[in-house]
Amino acid sequence: MSKHYGAIAFTEAVRDVQRDHGSHAFYDRKRVQGTAVPGSDALTEDEKDYLAERDSFYLATVSETGWPYVQFRGSPIGFLRVVDDHTIGWADFRGNLQYISTGNVAGDNRVALIATDYLHRRRLKIYGHARVVAAEQDPTLVGSFADPAYDAVVERVVLVTVEAFDWNCPQHITERFTVEELDTYLAPLRGQLAALRAENAQLREKLDRGE
């Protein structure tokens, strides 16, 4: 948990619930630590490496009606980039043309991200302030986030100034595997299966010849 995470997440209502369940004293120390130090929290190499390996994350924004909106963002590994110690960003591709997240950020730039590694049961939560840069505003920047190997139109880039972050407990993260991750485990088995099929074919040929 970064220094300022508790100052953002542990509101009075949250602290009341923590008191009810006996975790108030433990987390209040982290909250006080964050309020005593001005500024935002810098990403360490652990967070940078982790984010660079993600192929998806969940983005939460807040609408003018006060309702939260959560959207899935996914693309080939590398689309979520660490710009510097305090900034992450990603290419925003053309989608269903609802633009809810983009519109919400225009009214309230506070966002939250959850990036999950299901294979290793790890989860990183991030608080930050988002800024949307359209292609017509800065074509060079937006173009730099494009992936030539991925056939999608980049309409804008979203840059998030990180305020705080926290690594979550893996206890209830369900293991899931991508096709690429499964291929790593299945490749040796496929090789063994192919060898057994070849061996069976040779044995059948021998039987057919009466050997």
From TrEMBL:
Source taxon at top rank: Bacteria
One Pfam entry name: PNPOx_N
Domain Pyridoxamine 5'-phosphate oxidase N-terminal: residue ranges: 44-137
Stretches of the chain forming a coiled coil according to its record: none
Protein name, UniProt field: Flavodoxin reductases (Ferredoxin-NADPH reductases) family 1
Species this chain originates from: Mycolicibacterium hippocampi
